[in-house]
Amino acid sequence: MNSNQLRHEFTHYFEGKGHLARPSISLVPQDPTLLFTSAGMVPMKAYFLGQEEPPCRRMVTIQKCFRTTDIDNVGRTPRHLTFLEMLGNFSVGDYFKEDAIVFAWEFLTRTLGLPPNRMWVTVFREDDEAERIWAEKIGVTRSRIVRLGEADNFWGPVGTTGVGPCGPCSEIHFDLGPELGAEARPGDESDRLMEVWNLVFMEFNKEADGRLVSLAQKNIDTGMGLERLATVTQGVNSIFLSDLFRPLTDAILELAKRAENIPAGQRELALRVIADHLRATAFLVADGVVPSNEGRGYVLRRVIRRAYRHGRRLGLKGPFLHRLLPEVQGCMGSAYPELAERGEYIRRIVQMEEQRFQATLEGGLETLESLLVDLMAKHRIHMPGEAAFRLYDTFGFPLELTEEIAAEAGLTVEREGFQREMNAQQERGRAAMKKVGMAASPYTALLEEKGKSVFTGYESTESSSTLLALFHLGREVSSLATGEEGEAFLAETPFYAEKGGQVGDQGKLLWEEGKAEVLDTQTPLEGIILHRLRVVEGTMNVGQVVNAQLDLARRLAIDRAHTATHLLHQALRELLGPQTAQAGSLVEPDRLRFDYNHFCGLEEREIRMLESRVNELIRLDQSVSTAEMGMEEAKRSGAIALFGEKYGEGVRVVQTGKSRELCGGTHAQRTGQLGFFSITQETGVGSNLRRIDALTGAGAVELAQGQRDILEQAALMIHTPSRLMLQKLSKLLQEKEEERKKMLALRDRYLRQLASSLVTRKREEPVRHLVARVDGLDIEAMTILSDSLLESLEKGLVVLGSIFEEKPLLLVRVSADLVSAGYHAGQLAKELGKVLEGSGGGRPEMGRAGGKPGAPIGAALEKARELVATDSRP
Length: 874
Ligand code: ALA
Description:
It is built from 25 helices and 34 strands. Helices cover 40% and strands 24% of the residues. The model is unreliable at 432-440 (pLDDT under 50). Bound molecules: alanine (ALA).
């Protein structure tokens, strides 16, 4: 039965028993205590604990799982994997042991028709009840029922916190047959038995202090690896021979043609590791994990790099994993459409990571290998942790990779040393990052005394209020005279203070007989809005009422840019996936800068798609609305919060179309007000950090006009209408190329003639040589000339000197036989370079020297003659 049928039969069987089929959750679980979804019960945890009401008391799932607990076994056995599909049936306070056992047995033996005499079952040491059910209800002979301890037959809690639902379990093992070894019982170290299904009787909650407390309800959690089930039903003896893997392993071997010469054991190991890790990679990336140096990203990075390294063992040079992704899609795509939907994205992530690793691996491997040789020579069995850390730091070698390679040479790595170095580095990083605390500023007192400024700028552009305080050069003052600069604090203001990337507002403060220009608005302390200003008329006095007026045109331009930022964010997430995180932004009048995390630059085509999408959203002319709500509610509504940004309990959500973001900034009322959006550049600004610069509104229009102007002026210059400009330009370039060729032909002819006239000036003593001055020739022409000269001389030494663009140049050539006789062009050039007060050098056959304008080229050539003439070499 193929795996698609198995998936179907499983779900169908349990639906027949009143179970609700639920879809697989992401490999990245909501549960903050878990790094990955590592078991089918992860989405059931809250139901088991009675914290949430399940949609149905009986459920059935096929859950994508990723676990690293067995990673070192992957490849070494025919049954271990990191990524697997877990078939599971669950009871939340409904049926318990007996039904769970009956269902499992019936499904395996009746529905799938597996022979009962090939099965073994295990129960927990103390679980008489389970043993009785197996023996009496099912009829399994007692000799085939094995009691095992906690390690084998007590499951949970899931994850590493050590708390959560758990319970004794009962497993069903399948005997794969004698070709895999002697008769074995569960608990023996043998590849002959394959554990197929684990039935967990979830009746306890493990508390933080280690106590097992009975749950209010008894639950069932079962898990059967689809890969293992496929193996036993398809009559093969390794997971990797089942239909879930076969096309993939075949494709790997097809790529690795040279692998035939590799010992079978090694080849099999590499093949399995690559196949498993590649599936894991595809699914992890599809669920939004990106290679990085921490958390999930680190695990993914390790998995990709490990697979890559095994590829090298198969003789695969350079990135290859990404080329196998279509095969993963072929095996799994029908059950998991995300593989195809995000196929291109997955391919690029994997390829990038492979390229990155390729670059570091070469250098790192060399260092590591020579280190290992060294350590082995000294009969060491440990590798110092600092050395492993250096490999990590310099070459990005994960510790586990170093350990793995070291283990192959019989060495272990001192983990403590590694950790020590790592901590030290993190400490250094933290110290460097520590911001200088804000000195107790006059603003703290102000805040205590006068309270927060009220921001009215979401609704109004103008407001009148009392001037509560004035500052001049950091000190509180009671007035500012004409021409003076300072800062003003008002009870109420429409001026937006720079925050969340949006620049501060500008405008005017007006009062009777006076006026100040607001140059910027800042918030030095949460709650305080300060207007940085210059008094242009009259005197400003604390206590008077001032009318604050925004520079409205500028603010509207900022609003447009801010809304454009949200639209761009939305478009980016649509294009690159929801994992694309905003890393920062700058919002200025009609201009924006948007930083985001991505592992590589965008292609021209993608930039265009983004731009088009944002313009499309602009044309939809959606309204932009805002709502105040609690943080929890905002999260539930799916609003995007900026990582690392602090939000209070009450938050503001800005929404337009599908875009919802937590944001305190000001916005256009409708997207149509943006008019137009244009990306000016996309660049990298750090590791995995990209930046988009863009214009909108009038800024974008001006850009387009400016570009048209350039185009038209260029068209004018080449006397062609702009629509024909490209043709004309390519014609001009072609003509230029032809002219260059003609010119070169002429030059070469000239150089040949020059050579034949110069050659008459050769000298024969003490060796055949020629020294000549050829002003106006550049180094390339001199080289060609020297080629012809050497050819005519047949053997000998040539020194050419030229003043080219005011600078003296020297070229020395020595024929092969004179090189054998000990002449060295580079050394001669070096000597001559001294005469030119410049430098010189080169190889034995060819040397060059040069100097500053005005250096005595004649004297250098004279020196050359002298050196050759007095050379006493035979
Ligand atoms: N939760 C159990 C397991 O993962 C079924 O093995």
